[in-house]
Amino acid sequence: MSIDKLKLSKIAQNGTQSTILQIVRDNSPISRSGIVSLTGQPHAAISRSTAVLLENKILLADSGSDTNGPRRKRGLELNSDYGYVIGIEYSADGIEAVAMNTAYQPIAKTDKKTDLANLNQNQILELICESVKEVQKKVKMSEDKCIGLAAVDPGLIDDDQGMSVFATTMCNWNNVPVVDYCQQQLKLPVMLLGSSKAKTLAVDRMELKNSIANLLYIEYGRGIACGIKLNNTYISGEGHLAGELGHLQVSDSNVVCRCGGVGCLEAMASLTALAQTASSSIESNNSILSQNKSITGMDVLRAAAQNDKLASRIVDEAFDRLGAAIAGLVNILSPKLVLLDNIINEAGPDAVTVLMRSLQKTILASHRRQLEIRISSLTSHIGALGGAAAILDNCLTV
Length: 398
Ligand SMILES: [Zn+2]
Hints:
Blueprint: H1 15-27, H2 32-39, H3 43-55, E1 59-61, E2 76-78, E3 84-91, E4 94-101, E5 106-113, H4 121-137, E6 146-153, E7 156-158, E8 163-166, E9 174-176, H5 178-186, E10 190-194, H6 195-207, E11 215-220, E12 224-230, E13 233-235, H7 265-269, H8 271-281, H9 297-305, H10 309-333, E14 337-340, H11 348-362, H12 365-370, E15 372-375, H13 382-395
Parallel strand pairs: 3-6, 6-10, 11-14, 14-15
Antiparallel strand pairs: 1-2, 3-4, 4-5, 7-8, 8-9, 11-12, 12-13
The structure holds zinc ion (ZN).
């Protein structure tokens, strides 16, 4: 098989198997009867397909279950030893890689902190492939059990061509044939996806187990973005450009945003904005930040958590704007759950209260009653986890 024809091996061979595997993924351990009641499909069809999946060692029946008697109890799970996939996320800050087994459990991770912003395309592609090999070395399964790789890109992608079109954060990252290059070098099927979609999928699979049909995931960092799942469908929009919450205009000020606009949420409230505001305010203030040679957004969040007056004022103002912007989205899209980036916790409980209050204040009473707002528990490798989950999801569909 030529490299350019590398295709992902499907784990599910037909629609019934696909349905069963997705139900087991989200509800394991689960009995055959449990699957029948969730799908409404005939018991005989579910039993037949389950038997094939058990025989092929794609599913396992756990040792405590009664699979022989007439009353088949709990116990079907995805087989974690069937194989594994790799998710890799690259950004201006470096490269994070995750190996995930076929039961959606992370089994190895690597984290390379390197400034990729000014490297040329080949240097970055080489580093990506090196990271894949490094994480593979940590996996105890043989290399031929590796099903595929998902590359999670920080910019705009072209799905059909498997190319990264451009990324504002990496200056030479234009029209890069990521899929072709990685397939040639690694001899693996490669999928390319955007970071916002990957991160939403990560929280949905790893944290929520696909239990929420209407979800907003708010990414907060140097940029601000929003992952959207409505009526059980991930919304990516024309050209995969949906979710640019950071470029909602929230202020009449003339603060310029990296998109070229002014007064965008990202320019007023992101980590980058916090760092800039703190740096320009520091001299006239007595702040613990004045000891820093250079100030990052994370420094400002952490100083706020220590009740530093300057940092608290800056973070409170930013979180007030962020809360109002998210509330606007809630009123339009009516999610059941808003999940906030774990980084928010770094600002401490008082700042989180400011954010929650701002959110609650602007949400319609009808929406507020059915809404839950939480901070995600995922702290690292989120894009890479989502990439790995995306490729496994693909294997479970036909
Ligand atoms: Zn903008």
